[in-house]
Amino acid sequence: MDRTSLLKTWLPGLALVLLALFAAPPAHARSEPLYFALEVRRDGRLIAQPKLLGQSGRTLRAERRRPGALAPDYRLVLTPRGEGDAFQLELDLSLPEAEGHSRLALLHGQERKFQLGRVPGELEVSLLLMKVDSPEFRALMRLTEEAPGTVQSVSSSI
């Protein structure tokens, strides 16, 4: 077997191995369940307070619509990506009278307030991000284990 035929034989395989190495997602980009708590204020007035469960690497869409309404009160699109210890988020928010877009980085348990409107105070968002099933999340959800001997429910009949 001469050098040219050897290269023709091994080169495609080597190219596939290199492609797999460079195209594979990094180990820290795994999908992770996340909890989001938002507060949306328009001109200082609270207009939405969604609490959502999502996953890093997956787009989360939510909207609130009153029964019978043609248009939603708001539409929210969150796209979180895990990068090391932080999460990169893209947030799009649409209201009937305003909309905004933001990109931000958050750590687990971090809360940030930011402006989306054209002028300060017009459209303000507060966003808390937590990893689901973390000690902080369990404390927030009051899912701590009951102490031994604690009465969990009482029933009686007369």
Model description:
It is a single chain. With 158 residues, the chain is an alpha+beta fold. The chain has one domain (31-141). It contains two helices and nine strands. The strands form two sheets. Strands 1, 2, 3, 8 and 9 form a five-stranded antiparallel sheet that branches. Mean pLDDT is 78; it is low at 10-28 and 153-158. This is DUF2381 family protein. Keywords: Signal.
Q: How many separate domains?
A: 1
Return residue spans where pLDDT drops below 50 for at least 5 consecutive residues.
Answer: 10-28, 153-158
Radius of gyration: 24 Å
What's the N-to-C terminus distance?
A: 95 Å
Based on CA inertia axes, which overall geometry fits?
Answer: globular
Q: Major β-sheet, in short?
A: 5 strands, antiparallel
Task: Tell me briefly what this model is.
This protein has 158 residues and is an alpha+beta fold. Helix content is 18%, strand content 42%.
Helices and strands in order, then pairings?
Layout: H1 3-23, E1 33-42, E2 45-48, E3 51-55, E4 60-64, E5 74-83, E6 86-94, E7 99-107, E8 111-115, E9 123-131, H2 135-141
Antiparallel strand pairs: 1-2, 1-3, 1-9, 4-5, 5-6, 6-7, 8-9
Features:
18% helix; disordered C terminus; 5-stranded antiparallel beta sheet; 158 residues; 9 strands; alpha+beta
